[in-house]
Structures are given as C-alpha cells and as structure tokens.
Amino acid sequence: MKSDIDHLMKDANLDSLLVIGPAGHNPYMTYFTGLVHVTRGYLLKKRDHSPVLFHRSMERDEAASTDLQIKNLDDYDPIKLLEEAGGDQIQADAMLLQRIFKEFDVRGRVGLYGKTEIGPHYATLHLVGETLPDVELVGEASSRSVLTRARTTKDEDEIARIRKMGEITSTVVADVAGFLTSHQVKDGVLVDRQGEVLTVGEVKRRINLWLAMRGAENPEGTIFAIGRDAGVPHSAGTDDDLVPIGKPIVFDIYPCEAGGGYFHDFTRTWCLGYAPDEVQEVYEDVLDVFETVYKALKPNTPCRDYQVMTCEMFEEKGHPTVLNNPKTKEGYVHSLAHGVGLAVHEGPYFSHVESNKDQLLPGSVITHEPGLYYPDRELGVRIEDTVWVHPDGTLEILAEYPKDLVLKM
Amino acid sequence: MKSDIDHLMKDANLDSLLVIGPAGHNPYMTYFTGLVHVTRGYLLKKRDHSPVLFHRSMERDEAASTDLQIKNLDDYDPIKLLEEAGGDQIQADAMLLQRIFKEFDVRGRVGLYGKTEIGPHYATLHLVGETLPDVELVGEASSRSVLTRARTTKDEDEIARIRKMGEITSTVVADVAGFLTSHQVKDGVLVDRQGEVLTVGEVKRRINLWLAMRGAENPEGTIFAIGRDAGVPHSAGTDDDLVPIGKPIVFDIYPCEAGGGYFHDFTRTWCLGYAPDEVQEVYEDVLDVFETVYKALKPNTPCRDYQVMTCEMFEEKGHPTVLNNPKTKEGYVHSLAHGVGLAVHEGPYFSHVESNKDQLLPGSVITHEPGLYYPDRELGVRIEDTVWVHPDGTLEILAEYPKDLVLKM
User: Fold this and answer.
1) Claim to verify: residue A332 and residue A226 sit in the same structural domain
2) What domain range includes position B81?
3) How far from B199 is each of B243, B244, B266, CA to CA, in Å?
4) Which of A12, A85, A311, B152 has a CA between 20 and 30 Å from the CA of residue A401?
C-alpha cells in the first residue's frame, strides 16, 4: 500500500518516481491524486519526500483539492520555453522537465509511470536522458514495478471502495438476471411482451444504464458472449446476436467508480431455461476447481503455485491446459487470477512461468476465475469472484452471488 | 483522414507507424480497429502497405472482426521468449518487437503512437532502438504527428458519428435544463418537491444516467461549475455544492460513444432565475466574440489568426488575455478552439504561438469556445459549440442549442 512506497523504492534502487499524464483513467496518477479533474501534469516523488503535483493554471483549484504539494507549470513559462526551443514542442517539454529536475535536485535512478501518449513522451524522455548525465530513466516491467507492488496490497479505504463497487456490480447482475428471465421464449430465443426479439446489444445498453444509475462507469465494456463467442475468453459477444435458451452465456462485468477509480471484476456463466448435459458437465468441472483451489489459497505463498494446481486439476479431468500446451486454444487457456484495484488487471499476477515471483500477500484483492473453453463445441464456462485477503490472512469474497448455471425462464 | 496517411508519412519521412496499446480509449489504435475488445496489442503500418494488427489468442475473434490483416502474438511464443530473456519481461518484449520488425522487414524511421503505460514501453523501445541500428524510433509532438494530422480531417462516417453524439449531448443538456427548472427555490438554492436540496453531485449523476440511456459514455466527467469554480476554466465543480439562483453556472459536457469512440464537446453558461448585471455584461461580451469570430472563420487559413483575433476583441472590450499576458488568470485565459474526434482535444490547435502552423482545413471538426473568467468576482462564462468545416468550406454547428443565459424558474 501507499505507506510501502519508500521502502519499495529503496529495494528497487530508485531515487525518484515520475508519474505522467491525467488523473483520470491513469491508475498511477489517480493513486496519488484521487479522482480530480487534472487532465495533464506530472507527479514527482523523491524517496523519503512527499510527492509534488505539477499542474496547469486552468486546473489549479482541482490540484489544490488533492492535499498534495502542488506547483503550477505556468511558473516555468512554457510559451517562452517553446520560443527558446524554436517551436519544437518535444524540445520545450524536455527543457521543462530538465528545469523541474534541477529545481528539485532530481538525480540517480528515476522510475517512469503513467498511462499516456507514448510517442511524444518517449521522445521527450529520450532527450532528457541524453542531456542529464546524472539521471537514469528507468521503465520497470508492469508486473514488477514499485507502484505495481505498492498497489498490490490495499488499505481500508481502498477495500471499502472496491467493496462498494462489488455491491453495485452484483445488484446490476441481479438486474440483468431479472431482465432476462422476465422475457418469453419464441423459436428458442428471448422476446419481450410485444414479441420483439432481445439482442446482446440491448442487454449491454441496459447494463451501462443500470451501472450509471448507481454511480459506476463501464470504460472497458462488458463481456456477454454466447455459444462460440463464450468459447473465446475475451470475445465480448456480438451486439446483433439474439439471446437463446439452452446455450452457455459467459457474462463478465468489470465496472469502476465514475471518473476512473476502483474496479470490481465478476463473471457468471448462465444457461437460460435449461443446460445441455455437455455444458452441465463442463460447468461442474469448473465449479469443482473453483471451490477446491479457493480453499487452498493461503497468504504468503507463490501465486504461480495456484495456477499450476488449477492446470493439474483440469488435466486430471481430461482438459488440455496452458501448462502442457502453452498455445492451446481449448480447455483452460488463461491465468487463474489477477489483482484488481485502480486497474481491472493489476498485480499480483498468476502466470505459471518460473520467473513469476509474485506472492499472495495479506491485503491484496484478487480475482479467482477458472474457466474452460471449447469454441468448436460452441461452449465456454467461467466463474469469477473478487476476493480480499484480509490482513490476518483469511479470505473473503467481496460480493457473494449465487452460482446457478441455469436461470429458470 | 485515413486516406491521407501514406502521403503524410512521406511528408514526415516516416517509413512505418507502430501503434501500441488497447483498442478502447486509445484514439490511435481505435482509429484503425474501431471499437473492439482488443485490450493489448500492436498495430504496424508500413508506408504504402495495409496495417497489420498483432493480437493475443484470447482476442482472436475480436481482432478478426476488424477487417485488418491480423497476426497472433502467440505465434512468436512469448513464454519461450520470456525464458530466453531470463524472466526479464522488458527484454522479452523487446525480442518480440525485434522479431516482428525482422519478419515484416521494418527499417528506417518508425513513428510511435498509442496511449499506454509509459514505463515498460519506454524501456522496451529504448532497448529495441539500441539493438536495431537500421531502425530509428520517432516520437512526434502530438500537435504535429502524422496520425494527428490524418485525424484532423474527418470522413463522412466520422462526421455522422460525431453528429449523433451531438444529438445525444443536446438532448441531455435539455434534460438537465428541464430537471433544474422543475425545482423550487428556497433560501436562494434549488430544492425538490420534498424540500430536499439539490447538489452538483446529484446533477452529475443524472447526467451520467441520461448519457448511458442514450448509448454514450462520459469518461472525462462533466464540468458543472458555479460561482468561483466557474471562474477557473477546468474546475469541474464541487459535488457538495448546492445549486443557487442568480449565479453563473458553466456547464461543459463532452461525452463519447460507449467503449471509447467519438466525442462531442459543448458548453453553455446558465443563471437560474435571473442574471446579475455584472454576469449579463460579461456574457454579452463573450456572445459578441463568439458570433463575430464564428462569422470570420474561413477554411485554409491559419488557426492561430482566430486566437489572435479573439484576444484582440476581448482586449478592446477591456479584458486581459493570454496574448498580452500569457500568465493571466483573469479574462480570456485559454485557446479559442481545438479539434474533436476520437479524443476530446485533438488537432487542429488554436494556440497563438508563432510555431503553431495548424490550418483550418475543410473536413475538420472543431470546438468554438470563447470565454471570460474572473474567479475573484465568482464569475465565469463560456459558450461552446462543435463545428464541422464542410468539404466545400462552409461551416455547420453540429448540434444547435439555444444560447439563453437565464433559465426561468
């Protein structure tokens, strides 16, 4: 959590962190600023010093509302810098950063963070790196970076916010179940009282509406994938598809707080009306793995162990997995879990590769999401909850929801 | 527009473009892919060749739905690459890009694009640049880049989508006006029939709801700024604020298509019940400048000329501006306009600096948004429409809406 940043910086031998970009939909910046309307800026954090937010004049009140130390970028006279740079914006931006680094005595290894435009920032940072010999600009792999590791464990306020998003998510999931089952069936697909067919696009529009009503936002969209689409993990579903009975629907929903805050991540697989035997069998395999591996999760153990365990269980049940065939497109084809926070996918990571050293730490929030996929059989099943590892090491599913495969019509 | 990319690449002496990141909320990638659920990938476009989208296995169906040439990243065996790199993800990603560059014979100047994580990509690209001597990685300034310039002019499909967003936006603006004026006034602020006070936070929740109902998304939030907040252009307003009569409210709304598509940008300034003389006078100055400069806009002329014209008009009326004092926080403190498309702020740009060579081209979509700001007088006024410059050079406001300052209660 935030209080770990200084010692994580020491471990990584970083002297400063430079975070670039807006405060919204940019987890690295939002982590420091909270949800404020700062659309462009820098945040500089030296080790063992408080962070400083550099903002534009137009956003001075928003910057001031953060309780961070703030500094107005207009104090560096960006228009004069641009003139001095002969109208070259990249050069002018590099000069601005050089002045900031000089004024704040930034030297040594500077970690780079932020979700922002790669092109101009690559060029600017390249120039800064070339012209400041006592500064080394460091881009760490996402999975291992200081801020990823800090964000991997959450404080109470963060848990409360993710929990709130979990409540909203499961309320909307229940709304969707109620909406689907309020329909009638005609020629094997759902129709409303007027006999109008229901489409996946209409279901998704309702989801966005019901999320917005409850103060949530859905920037990454929703997976509502039927039949063959369900058999491809990230297939979002096809808007024009009708909604059939007796076919598996993978419904994966991952909204965040409005403005780009904390996420929740949740999946159920439903069959409307009835489940064919083939789907039922695959579902039971997934559910068994879900429950067995969940019970096995213990704090302060390697995350990769649970991915291996999941693969081995699925293999015993006769399914191909990424462990014995990394390129398989059938069976179990993804990781068991990932962290959830200001990004829907963040640390800890659960890849089975040997280089993955992530531990399941107390304070982390992770998904738990085994699944099986057989696109050629028009079949996919995933079950996912979001789980908090309490500081005392016990586990809690943040938003409980029934795991029925069949929704009765 | 898209058909200009090859000759713009030639002008900029770029041999290839490399776009990095997801398809959603990443205008550079969305420009090629459309709104599909591709969360991670590369797009490579060599000059005079069709673009190729590199995707993960899990997202193969989504990638295939784009009509782009596609290539599965798993074909490069990323797990083996990671092993070869000794578990160093940055090294493995660099090796992956090196293989792609070799296979597709990428040489010369490669322009970098994409809104994505700066840290790991900076490190990866730095490594690629160091190890491939016949490749030069180029990050252009956003305002001048090939894709910014291509995106500056829109084709018919893009115009239709922005127009649709304009219709949605003005419908929601009318909803907000109706919602506000349906309230009663008690002690100078709005209350509902039960006497409950209305807050800015509640107004914003309704806006998100009404946008979602109509298939739009609001990733950047809404400005609903009252009094002193209205006097600071990017102050988004304060959620706990009550809604008073007789004070200026700057209401700036800039939603996009759900999933991260085309934006519309629109502002009105309202006084509920009545407008104090001081606000009325400032409003009339802004409206006069709005109308006069709008009539002056001509295609194929420098954008900066209109910013200078706007400053000079405001100065004649006795207001400070960024032309005579770049650091002013009072008077006219921002640019007249900007392009609108897959980003809410894109080219052409209207800064008055001499290095700004942007032209107002036929086919572009721009805002038109003069404003005046006096935070110490608790006063701000901005009027903004989104304007299409037709291919024949005539102008059209894409969503007309009344410009009354006072909303009668």
Assistant:
1) yes
2) 2-150
3) 6, 10, 22
4) A311
